[in-house]
Amino acid sequence: xxxxxxxxxxxxxxxxxxxxxxxxxxxxxxxxxxxxxxxxxxxxxxxxxxxxxxxxxxxxxxxxxxxxxxxxxxxxxxxxxxxxxxxxxxxxxxxxxxxxxxxxxxxxxxxxxxxxxxxxxxxxxxxxxxxxxxxxxxxxxxxxxxxxxxxxxxxxxxxxxxxxxxxxxx
Length: 170
Fold this sequence. Notes:
alpha+beta, five-stranded antiparallel β-sheet, elongated, disordered N terminus, disordered C terminus, EC 4.6.1.17
């Protein structure tokens, strides 16, 4: 049973529990997250030209991100399993040519949000890019994974400060 005063992941004895969202209304919920993989220009060139020996790196990473969003509750403790209505993962070369920008947009109609699903999609997409390219560039870095926007639910709209955002992946 949750501690009095609202939603918490701790019960009255201080033990971790999954929050009971049964009484929360189902609303349309969306979340957008972004991240990036920084790499050598030569690595980016191989990806964009289709020259990686493992095949279409961007297509595989996109599918991995979508699959990860759908499995978030299996990966993140105390995260609710959600029926997702949409998952989109976009990848694009960064404007400065230093790597790949990733953006995931996730939607559902339900009693809890999809921020973790969007963040998980970006993270697994980035890890897949690294895995598929590590043979030619072990110095790649994964970074700046962050929530950009969310809507729906009791807390309403969240939009990251525009000055803090990187260019959108296209």
